[in-house]
Structure formats: C-alpha cells, structure tokens
Amino acid sequence: MNQAEHVPGARAVKVSPKQLHGLSVISLTPFTDTGEVDVASFRRLLDFYLAAGVHGITLLGIMGEVSKLTEADRDTVIETAVSHVAGRVPVTVGCSAPGTHQTLAFVRRAQAAGADAIMVAPPNNTRNLDLVLDHYRAVSEVSELPLVVQDEPTTTGVVLPPAFFGRVVQQVPTARYVKVEEAPTLMKVSAIREAAQDKLGLFGGLGGMYFYEELARGAVGIMTGFAFPEVLVQVYERYQAGDAEGARACFYRYLPLIRFEAQLGVTGVAIRKEIFRMRGVIASAHVRQPAPRIDERTLAELTDLVGFLGL
C-alpha cells in the first residue's frame, strides 16, 4: 500500500492544538545512508502521516532514535516538523533527559520552536518518587504547555505506580496526559483512571498491541510509530463513531503485523524504517549505530506478511 486512502475510513482530522487524542504518531527520524538527518524524507514522512489521518505527531520519542540525536539534530527535527505541519495537527515534543536542568532546557527550546505539547519521562533510574514528582513540578513551572507524563519503565528503570498519578494531578498543574507503556497496560490504564479521578487523558503505546482494549478501558488514544498508521486511525474513528465491533474487526485483522513489527530483538524502529522505505516514503532505512540489522529471512517474513494482509 503506497497511499493512505487505500484503507477505507482513513482521513485527515483537524483538532485543537490543546486537545490531544486519537493517534499521535511517534515519528521516525529519517537518515541518509551516511547517517545524517534527511530533511527531504522527513517532510515526505510528515505529509504521509497527515494523509493517513493522524490526529497528532509526537517527535523525539524512542522510535525517533532520540538518544542518538545531537542537539543540532533535535532542533532540526522540531523546527522542520512545526513549520511543515503548520498547525494542522498538534505537535508533541519529547523533552526527556537524565537530569532536571537538561530537561528544562529541552522544554524551553521546544516551546520556543512552537510545540503544542511536551512529553517527559522520569529521569533514568530515579526510584525516589518524591524526586520524580519534583522533576515534573519543575517542568510545570517553566512551561504552560500541556504535559504528557511518559510511563516507560523498560527504558527509564522507573516504575510509576497508579497512586503516583493521583499526586501528579494535585501537584503538577500542566499535567494533562499519561502515555502508559508498562505491561500489562490494560490494568494500569484502569488503575490510573481511578487514581487520577479521570483528570488525565491516557494514551497507550507498546507498538499498538493493545489499542482496541485500551480504548475499551477509556484511553483517549495511542502514541506509537506503527508503519501503517491509517489502520490505527480507522480503529480509533470507528470506535469513536460507536462502531466498536468494526473497530475490533479492523484491529484484530492487522494485529499480526503490529505484533511482528514490535520485535524488540531486531528493534521495531529498524523494521518500521524498512516498511516506510518499501512504501516509498523515506529514501533510506538507515538506523544509527549501535543497532542490530535485520536479516534477510526477517525481511522476507515481513514482505510475506504485508502481502498476506493485502497491504
């Protein structure tokens, strides 16, 4: 499938910059074969996301290879996206860093560049939740942008229990959303909703593997970089239109590809980049090192699965 409109129901949705919902796609960062940021491919990718009907774009997430970007690269990504998207959907910028001072610098730069929201994970391996809460309070003090708290213990080493989000609601005025990436996500979505008294909008993640069930639990959307975003748009819009059965049928049809793409052992980003290259959206599937490469058998399996699903 080379065009978003080949999946019935995919369409562009214009929303208020202050309201995050639906699919806020985690954008890849395209590189040239020599590892430089490929701005031309990035603009094509942004156009592709918008044509697929995404409800928002999230930059500098794990799937954007944020840990391998220089500060100049970060600025290029943010400035290119904000200017190219031009307010058509909200742009959320990842501002996570090991320390609070560094995080605040990233937040200020994102705000100055025109971001609509920011996403911040806890500082790595900070197990003292009082310190984590201090971190988020500091973020709230330097920017009025809506804050997405990224609950991602696999990368950060920080487990945020549901009760923590009750404290967030009380003490972090700009906190509006949570991206839940701790499995089992479904129970945690329900537990956070209860602890935060439904005052935080919840987004799923984990490649989209539980998207339908997360919606059924009250999530407002998902942040993921799945390489066929028009599928997730259709799932969300059918669900919001009251067609839960249609949403579930669409989701379960494409779940094998979602599952295949989420293989952490060969890095989901490498598979995603290869799919976007196959779809003619980006020029190169280059992933900055260190990163494992996809072997020929995995590529053959991917091609077979995409063909089997009629994509």
TrEMBL record:
Pfam families: DHDPS. Its EC number is 4.3.3.7. It comes from the Bacteria. One of its GO terms (molecular function) is 4-hydroxy-tetrahydrodipicolinate synthase activity. Belongs to the DapA family. PANTHER family: 4-HYDROXY-2-OXOGLUTARATE ALDOLASE, MITOCHONDRIAL, DIHYDRODIPICOLINATE SYNTHASE. This is 4-hydroxy-tetrahydrodipicolinate synthase. It comes from Alicyclobacillus cycloheptanicus.
